[in-house]
Specification:
37% helix, single chain, 4 helices, 229 residues, 11 strands
């Protein structure tokens, strides 16, 4: 019995040591001359792609080959940025590129960044579209006023109005479609691949840190938006 307890204790110590030394290997591949970040661990692959809409709207793909399903909750994703201690100016606080490129993160502070919920992102996108439409209407109205006595100008203005309103309607359709791809909670079954995007409140930085909890593991990415092939 004593020998059995010793063996169990040694096994627990060995398992603990293995867990402590277990390091995920983070890699990149090239897409359109930019780096895409990914990591595979325990049958789960997480891919972070900032090449489509930039650093603050990264696309995330999760591939489940773990042998079982799990619930993925995007609301648990956190985003941070390195800031310069003592510097509170938004325009310069996050200018840490040279040191980060050398792999030096000592002495920096971390700021938690806001990640929009799908509902808040929808409202933000709709407001942006509304202002764009208002500006378009203002520009067209000004052009019509300037060329009010010129029938040729009126025809051109009307064509421009139709073209710009067509662009506006297309942009509205694109925003609705894009919002449908915003990450929401999903069960990801074995052998399935899910993808979506999140939107992060912008700051003046080319680096962010993403912590993405998946299937009981945390995937920790330092994303460099200016990292080119």
């Amino acid at each position: 019995m004593k020998n059995l307890l010793v063996c169990l204790l040694m096994a627990m110590i060995g398992a603990s040591a293995t867990a402590q030394t277990d390091q995920k290997e983070y890699k990149t591949f090239v897409k359109n001359d930019h780096h895409v970040y990914y990591c595979t661990h325990n049958g789960v692959t997480v891919v972070v792609d900032p090449t489509v809409d930039g650093l603050f709207e990264p696309h995330i793909t999760i591939i489940n080959e773990s042998g079982h399903e799990f619930l993925f909750e995007p609301k648990k994703i956190t985003a941070q940025a390195y800031g310069i201690p003592g510097n509170t100016y938004k325009s310069t606080r996050y200018r840490v590129e040279r040191l980060l490129e050398k792999g030096d993160t000592l002495g920096f502070e971390k700021d938690v960044l806001t990640i929009y919920t799908p509902e808040k992102y929808q409202k933000k996108a709709s407001r942006t579209l509304w202002w764009a439409g208002l500006i378009t209407e203002t520009v067209i109205a000004s052009a019509e006023a300037i060329g009010a006595q010129d029938s040729g100008t009126k025809v051109v203005n009307e064509l421009q109005r139709e073209e710009r309103m067509g662009d506006y309607r297309q942009a509205n359709s694109e925003i609705k479609r894009y919002c449908e791809n915003y990450w929401r909670a999903n069960t990801i079954f074995n052998g399935e691949e899910h993808e979506g995007f999140i939107a992060i409140k912008r700051i003046k930085s080319s680096h962010i840190i993403l912590d993405i909890p998946v299937n009981g593991e945390n995937f920790h990415f330092l994303i460099d938006d200016k990292k080119h092939y």
